[in-house]
Every structure is written in C-alpha cells, then in structure tokens.
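Z., the sequence and structure:
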Amino acid sequence: MLTCDGDPEQVRTDDARHTRAVRPVSILAIDIGGTKVALRREGAGTPPHETVVRWSEGASRSDDLALLRAAVATMGSGSRAVGVSLPATVAVSGTVTSWPNRPSWVGLDWAGFVADLFPATPTATADDGDLAALAEAEHAGRSDVVYLGVGTGVGGGIVSDGRLLPRSGRGSCEVGHMIVALDGPRCDCGRRGCLQGIASGPAVLRAAGAAFGQETGPEQLLDGWRAGAPWADGAVRAAGRALAAAVIGVGELLRVDLAVIGGGFAAGVTDLAAVVADEVAGHARVGHPVPEVRAAALGGTSSLHGALSLARSLRAEAVP
C-alpha cells in the first residue's frame, strides 16, 4: 500500500482487518482498471453515490489523469479518507514501474499526483487484486482464499490465515503471471505461457476470433458461448483450464480452501466459475482436497469494496 498522508511508505492493507469497531465517516473509494474507473462515496447519513468512467482509446497519460481528476470532481468534496485500488506496480518511491494495459503510465509520480489530487486528506493506494482478495475473504468469512480477477488482465491476491501474502514490503502476488503453459501464447509482459496471456478478456477474444475466422467482440463471444458455438466454447474452456491450473497450484503450495473467480470479464461470461470448478475437481488427488471454487460474491466490484475497506481503515472513528 502507498500512503500519501505524509511521505510514501510501503505498508500492507491487511492491517485493516484488526482495527477496533468503528462507525462510518465520509469516505471515497476509487477502483482504477485497464478500461474504466469506478468511484463510490459513502458517508454517515447520506446515500452512497457511485459512478463509472471509461478511458478513451489511444488516450495519453495526461488525458487519463485529466479524466480521473474530472471524475473525482463529480463525487463532491469533503471526503475524510480515500482508498484507491490500482493494478499497476508502484515502487516504494511512489513511481509507477509497470502497467502493461496502460504503458504510458510507467514513470508517473503516482504518489505526487495523489497528494495533489487529495491535499491534506489521508489517502492510500493498494494493489487491486490484494484488495479484492481481502474483500471476498471477509465476505465469505474464510481465512485462506485465493482470488483471481479476470478482466482486461488477470489480477489476484492470496489471503492466508486472514492476512495477505506475501508479507509486508514484499509487493503483491502476480498470479496473472504464473506460468500455466510453457508453450502458451505470448503475454503482454513479453513472456509465453502466463495465465493472463490465456485467460484475460482480450486473450479469450483473440482465441475466439482466431477459431471463428474473424475479429470477435464481447457480445458476440457471449452469444456464441450461450449457444454452444465451438469457437466460443473452446476459447472459454481454455481460459477455464488455465485458471484451474493456477487454483490447483496455489492450493498445493498454500492449502487455501476457497478460490474466488471475479473481475468484469468473469462476471459477464456466465458459468466461467463453474467451468473452473469442474476442471479443479477433475484434478483432485486422494487425501488432498482441492479448493472450493466460487464466483465472486461481490461480482465485478470486489476491488472497489476493498478500496472502501482501505478508506475506512485510514479515517474511522472508534465507537466509545
């Protein structure tokens, strides 16, 4: 997590799980994704306000930041804490070092931008997969969970004994870059065989289009999947097998007992979690139960809910 109430520092968001009982104050959550930004403001005694804006195709970094500023302005002023979910890799210095889905952001002084956007307001940024994992684990009441968020990329997080892995100061789990097929297609990161290169929304659309013989859009894919068209069925099931390989691998290493499949693309492709569950169940071995697989209870908003929890942990008033 990157805090911007003072100097940037590397902190973990799982500390929020161990705060005292609190009552809500006015807070703002921002979930930044590869194609869109979701914002939600909550406050004591006022109805929640939520909005979504989409990045413009081919936009520059400055265009993106201007759009983000404008979106924040529509949420009104007076938030006492801000939690931000971000899929980019951010160094301890506060600089973006990697984001394949928006490469123009590399080199951005994110800490400085956030401090300027929310002056004198406690603000923190954390990995989107970590925040989604915490939100889903808390919602399920489980302590050992792997979360896989399937959208423009594949993000995720791991909760073990109620705390995020890896430990503080060690970054975030890059589950989307687990190698699940050594001879697989090339990922946006440049390597072959990454989970993201097979199971992300764009990867599934590419595979479906190649099988269909022409470029395929999301709606066409969903129609084909519902109709059982071989070109769509094959692409979705290949993604399901890749996701299952990741679930099984994490399960063997860390003994998580629940795998949650979330993200915007997964929410749109009906039964993707069921496909993963079937694949995982088919690879159980005697005496070693595989993780249970569920669709995200919070749908495509897991990271946004995690950002809300992060904001609450920053500026909450203890109940007397």
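The chain has ten helices and 15 strands. The domain at 2-127+302-318 is CATH 3.30.420.40 (Nucleotidyltransferase; domain 5).

Let me know what you think.
H.
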